[in-house]
């Protein structure tokens, strides 16, 4: 869809798109993450998942001052080697960072760890997605799990991993989820809003 068409589509939904709380908040623009190898990450998100590399910049540092600490809360001598921004379908964008820093750590998280996160990708056909991940040699957990009870009944999920260990999820709910019946607000969905 062309940019002008997208703008026209969302311009007619100002009350739907606005939220209470943070003034002017409309939605999640991007998810930012630091990766160990930017080229590997761009290849994974592009060649395996189908995201598109849009723009990037770097390096960014302040060898003499505290700009990096003041702006980003990192070691003052940290260097952002490069940033790449990617468009992934019709959801939030990805902002991938490759840093070097004197106090840099590699964190291997479990889903149960405080502060752990994952990225969930909506797919139309989860069985086809799993077969595709298998064909690409992408590691995944058991599944897909069909959810049959509770508020999220109607979805199917499976967790999979980027080469450096990032947890990801493929999710589908082509007929919606149980909670939607009678709900005042529904979660993001690839389906068009009810008229």
Count of strand segments: 8
Anisotropy-based shape: globular
Largest sheet: 4 strands, mixed
| Radius of gyration from CA coordinates | 19 Å
Integer count of domains:
2
Structural class: alpha/beta
* Mean model confidence by pLDDT: 90
DSSP summary: helix tally: 5
Q: What order do the strands of the largest sheet run in, or round the barrel if closed?
A: 1-4-3-2
Percentage beta strand: 15-25%
Low-confidence runs of at least 5 consecutive residues:
5-15
How far do the termini sit from each other?
21 Å
Order of helices and strands: HHEHEHEEEHEEE
Indicate the percent of residues in helices. Answer: 10-25%
- Oligomeric form of this entry? single chain
Structure description:
- This protein is α/β, with parallel strands linked by helices and 195 residues long.
- The protein folds into 2 domains: 28-106, no CATH class; 107-179, 2,3-Dihydroxybiphenyl 1,2-Dioxygenase, domain 1 (Roll).
- It is built from 5 helices and 8 strands.
- The strands form 2 sheets. The protein has a 4-stranded mixed β-sheet, covered by helices on one side. A 4-stranded mixed β-sheet has the order 5-8-7-6, with helices on one face.
- Strand 7 (156-161) and strand 8 form a beta hairpin.
- The radius of gyration is 19 Å and the shape is globular.
């Amino acid at each position: 869809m062309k940019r002008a068409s997208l703008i026209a589509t969302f311009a007619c939904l100002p009350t739907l798109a606005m939220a209470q709380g943070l003034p002017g908040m409309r939605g999640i623009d991007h998810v930012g993450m630091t990766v160990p190898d930017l080229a590997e990450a761009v290849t994974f998100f592009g060649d395996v998942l189908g995201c598109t590399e849009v723009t990037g910049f770097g390096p960014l540092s302040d060898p003499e001052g505290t700009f990096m600490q003041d702006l980003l809360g990192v070691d003052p001598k940290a260097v952002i080697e490069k940033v790449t921004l990617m468009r992934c379908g019709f959801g939030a964008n990805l902002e991938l960072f490759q840093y070097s820093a004197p106090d840099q750590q590699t964190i291997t998280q479990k889903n149960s760890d405080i502060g752990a996160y994952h990225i969930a990708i909506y797919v139309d056909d989860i069985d086809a997605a799993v077969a595709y991940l298998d064909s690409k040699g992408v590691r995944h957990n058991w599944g897909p799990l069909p959810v049959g009870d509770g508020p999220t009944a109607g979805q199917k999920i499976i967790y999979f991993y980027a080469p450096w260990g990032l947890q990801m999820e493929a999710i589908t709910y082509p007929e919606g989820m149980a909670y939607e019946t009678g709900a005042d607000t529904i979660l993001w969905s690839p389906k068009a809003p009810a008229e």
